[in-house]
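User: Predict structure, ligand zinc ion.
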Amino acid sequence: MTSATAKDRESGQVSVDRQAQEQQWAAEARQGDRDAFMQLVQAYQRPVYNLCYRMLGDAAEAEDAAQETFLRAYTRLRTYQPGRKFSSWILSIASHYCIDHLRKQRYHQVPWDDLPPDRMLSASDPEPEQAALSRERDRSVHQLLDTLPAEYRLAVILRYWHNMSYEEIAVLMETTVSAVKSRLFRARQMMAKQARQTGGADQ
Amino acid sequence: MTNHDLYLEKISLWLDNRLDAAESAALEAHLRLCSTCRQTHAAMQMVDAQLRQAAQTVLDPSPGFTRQVEARLDSYRQSHRRLWAGMVILLVGSLVLVGVTVAAASVSLLTLGQALTDPAMLVYGLRRVGEFAHQFWLVADLLRLVVRVALAAVQQPLFWGMVLVSFLLTGLWVKILRSLYRRTAVHIT
Ligand SMILES: [Zn+2]
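Assistant: Predicted complex:
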């Protein structure tokens, strides 16, 4: 068996330049510089929005959650430790917000909405029918994610969409590497079960 | 944890490229023998492929996103400023309230003091204290004294003015605090 799963996707490696830049923005924002903070919003709106969208499964809710994330970040800039990756700090705020949000609405679940077609950016397939296909695939993935408890879902999203290592996930979720290991395993087990139940017909 | 569970967890680690060569070999050997694990392996691999595929799709927030964040920051700052303004008003108001109370109280005490320094009153009081050991109705008398002082205060228009002002100011503070709370709670929760 060959490992077709090697992680050589372009990792989210931030270049040294960019890291220096974000540190400077964060320092200026802490001094009360609004423009510097808006630069950070500009730079991180996409990862934050995507995390919220995959966690909540609803475009409007994700947008609200992402905005709330930045507002919280702004009011808590004092707690940001310089030197820490800004991306992992802001994503951890977003994660906490989404998990709280999911807990609050656990009893009236909303179905995953369809992806807004005009807002989809797919690197690989710009053709319309290809886009429709990828939308269909996305829906079945959301159905899989939907079977998971919030913490498991978060681990899966950080692993696949944000390309994080076990160690990075553990730091962000404030837990141990072995807990991450077991969360990803349980999540995969649950999703595999769900995929078999729905028959794997959506291949 | 059964033997199978152990291998199933290894499948998850294998998908994340976290097994060394020896562990991979052991897993492969088990999969060759065990059809249950093989099935789960296939299902997990399928899910993994599906997730990788889906993770290629990156969404953009709506075009007005940063502007909306800015608007929310503005309204947060405004309510923050309003909170501070409210605090200052509250502080000044409380000081005024305390001032009015102290003034009213000192005027009342002044008239009470005059009553107490009245020789007739003083004699009356001293005589009562002297009778303490023999008179059990001292308590009743003391009560009568308190009532008399209260009655004297009630007759002062200043006393009523003080009560009225206290009521009005308290009502005002409650109102200010409530509206401030409502405005900031939206953002702070
Ligand atoms: Zn087995």
